[in-house]
Structures are given as C-alpha cells and as structure tokens.
Amino acid sequence: MIRSYRFRRLFAPTVALTKAVATLILGLCIFAIGVGFGFRQLLNPLVTRFADLMHTTVGQFVNAADIDVTIHVIALFFLFGGVLVSYKGLTGALRHIVETLNPSLKTGKVDVYMKRQQLAEGPRVVAIGGGTGLSTLLRGWKQHTSNITAIVCVSDDGGSSGSLRRDKSMIPPGDIRNCLVALADAERSMTDLFQHRFKNDSGPLSGHSMGNLLIAALVDQHHGDFEKAVETASDVLNIRGRVLPATLTHVRLKAQLEGGVEITGETAIVEARRTIKKMMLEPADCRPTHDVIDSILDADVICIGPGSVYTSIIPNLLVPGIVEAIRESNALKVYLCNVMTQPGETEGMTASQHVRAIIDHVDKRPFDYVMVNSKRPSEESVTKYNESGQLFVEPDIDQIRSMGFRVIQGDFISESDFVRHDPIKAVARLMQMLTR
After folding, report:
1. Which domains does the chain have, with CATH numbers?
2. Which residues, including other chains, have CB under 8 Å from residue 232's CB and lie 6 or more apart?
3. Which of 116, 328, 333, 352 could form a disulfide with 367 if both were Cys (CB 3.0 to 4.6 A apart)?
4. φ, ψ for residue 422 (rounded to 5)?
5. Residues whose CB falls within 8 Å of the CB of residue 374, separated by 6 or more in sequence, listed in order
6. What is the pLDDT of residues 300-314, one digit of tens each?
7. 173, exposed or middle or buried, with CB in 10 Å at 0-12, 13-18, 19+?
8. Contacts of 347 (CB under 8 A, 6+ apart)
9. pTM higher than 0.85
10. Beta bridge partners of 151
11. Are the C-beta atoms of 421 and 412 separated by less than 8 Å?
C-alpha cells in the first residue's frame, strides 16, 4: 500500500486538471470542425473576401515577396490574441463563481486551490481511538491530507454524552464532536460554538456541550439516524475527512478487575482505580458499519491511538470485524503509545505493557509498528503529573522489539499546559515512512 500511495502521489495531483483542460480543448476542436462543415458555404466566401482584403492592405506597406510571410505573422497575433482573450474571460467567469460561492476567497485563490488539491491527493488515513488523543492526532493529519477517516469509540457514559445517552437513547456524541472540531475547516467562531460548555449555573443545560446538543438536535431532524446527523454536522464544520462511530449499536464497557470482580460502565471502570485484567463489550455481537470496514481496507496508513488503552482503544478493537479488516488491509499499521500513564487504567505501565494490554484482547496483531516517545518531559512537568498520579511511560524499546514489533522512536511530545503527543512531529514521521 505504501508503494501504491507513492504512485498516486507522483501522478495524481494534476490528473483532474489535465483531464479538464484536455476535455475543453477537445470540445473546442469539435466545435470548430462542426462550424467549418456546417457553415462551409457561408464561411468560404467570407474567408476568401477577408483574405483578399488582408492581402491588398498588407501589399500597400510591404514588398510583394513579403506579403505571405507578413500575413502569417498577423494570423499568429490573431491566434494568440484570441487565446488570451478567451483565457481572461474564462478565468474572470470562474473567479466570479468562486467569489459568489465563497466570498472569503477574495485573494489567494491559486494558493487555496493548490493546497486543497494537495490535500485531496494525500494518503488515505484511518485513525482509531477516542478521547483527546485521537482528536489531537487528527489535527496533525489534516495538514497533509483530507482523506481522513476517524473511527471513534462510542462507549462513553459520563458527563454530557452520558446524559444524552440516557435521556435520548442515542450514541454518545462527545468524542465524535471532538474529532469533528479537530478536522474542521470552518470559521473559529463556529468551532468555538461547538466546544462551548455550559457552566454549572445553567440549570438543565449545566455541563452540556453545545456541540453535543446540536448533534442531538440533528439526530431528531434525521429521525434518529445518527450517521446522517454526523454527516450534517461535518458539512456545517466543513471538515477535512469524515468521522464514523465504531458501531451504531448501543454498547457498554464491562471490565474484569483483579480478583475476578466485574464492573460495568466506562466511568465506573475508571473510578474503581483497580488493575484491569480483561475488557468486554455488551452486547458482544455488535457490528461495525460498512463504511468503517471499507475505509480500513482502502487505507494507506492505520493509526491506533494515542488514547486511553482500556476505554478508548481496546473497545474499538473488540467490535467484531474491525481487527480482521485491519489485518486484511495492506496499510502501514502503527500503534501510537501514550506519553503519560492514566489513573484508573494504566498506572505504572511501561510502553511494552501498553502494547501487551492491547495484544491480550485480540486474536491477531492489529499493528506492525509501535511509535514510542523516547524524550523525557521536563522535571517540572513530570512533578506536576506525578502529583495527579500520572507517570512518564517508560520507553522499554528492547522489550517491544522482543515481542516482534518494529519500533519508531524519537521526540514526539509537546509540552505546554499538558504533556501530550505533538501531532505535527508524529505525523511528519509517519509521512516520511509513507513517502521514502
């Protein structure tokens, strides 16, 4: 699949434009032939008369021996002048159409066209996960391609998503909303509106995200069709790519904890703060949509993570058919290991233990590469995270290699208010692998 992407990248960027120009030229040629044959009796006398007039006029200024050459030069001026005028008229018409459809594109149209053309011919990316990890990665990918499919976990039962899930019996929209905003090409005011969260003094709206409420409203407008609601929200935000729920079945997470205790519900599992031995989905026979499977099979690169191992990544892989499709795909398959551990899920776990947790839940390996950050955050950041029970994920690279995986190691972190993956660095490294 990497070779397939390289081939498309080499030849595809100008295919659509070349085809359009060739069609235009062919159409003009056919038109000219039709005019010549259809109006031959009318045109022949006119052409002959005009040629005689030109010959006579030119003869008044040049020698008889130079008349034919001069007429040919004048004909070339007419030819190029006609092409120039046609070009100006065509581009003027196109400019008017573009400005009418999108008034914000008053300048820089060529740059915008080239950028969008480049993105349209970018790699076909499938990103699987949930939470902030997935939406962070998507912000990096959308700088390189618009052929992005985010496959999102739908087992959330807390906060605004949990309330809507209980009150309206709908798929929890929170992680999907975050991915939509991450891929958005809309005005900042629109994405800010989607991410607005009502404060606790807002009565029944307290804690709800505006984007979640808008998706819920769209579900109502589409008579309960969650996929259509997400498609409409995607159009509103003008996203680069698409966002798909891993399944349209109403699923719940179930965990078997250390000691054999079983607990149900994502929020309850995290709050239990006990070692997780096994994750399950209820119902276990849920199915992915055809679009999910088709996007995986057609991908150039499949990214699993980053994100909560037990509540964002594994739940997607437990949906029957997803791991099988990943294994069948010829894509570059990469697991992006978390930078910091997560309280209630991966406390004290190394990078290889993150990998082991995933592998223990599937029949076949869903990835061949593991991306591991090997740069340690600043002591200030580490201390701050340690106070909240989060530790730096130790990059035990040799242990991962001994498990049969190929390791992509390097500096992939960003330190601001949070220590997390730097999507620009991570995606740049994956693009190198696709194009080298």
Report:
1. 2-113 (no CATH), 118-435 (3.40.50.10680)
2. 218, 221, 222
3. 333
4. -90, 110
5. 395, 397, 409, 410, 411
6. 999 999 999 999 999
7. buried
8. 273, 341, 389, 391
9. no
10. 128, 244
11. yes
